[in-house]
Amino acid sequence: MRNLMVRVIVLVGVLLVLVGCGKPAAVHFFEQGQPATLDEWHVLRIRDGRLSLNDGVVPYDLNTPLFSDYAHKLRTVWMPKGQAAGYQPEHAFDFPVGTILSKTFYYPLPASGAADGKSVARTPPSQSSLHEESLDLSKVRLIETRLLVHRKEGWVALPYVWNQEQTAATLQRTGASVDLELVAADGSREALAYQVPDQNQCGGCHITDNRSRKLLPIGPKARNLNRDFDYLGGRDNQLAHLLKLGYLKDLPAPAQLPRAADATDASAPLDARARAYLDVNCGHCHSRTGPAITSGLWLDAPTQDHLKLGMCKQPIAAGKGTGNRRYDIQPGDADASIIAYRMDSDDPAVMMPEVGRAVVHSEGVTLIREWINALETNCDTAGEGQPGNTGPPAV
Question: What is the pLDDT of residues 331-341, one digit of tens each?
Answer without folding.
Answer: 999 999 999 99
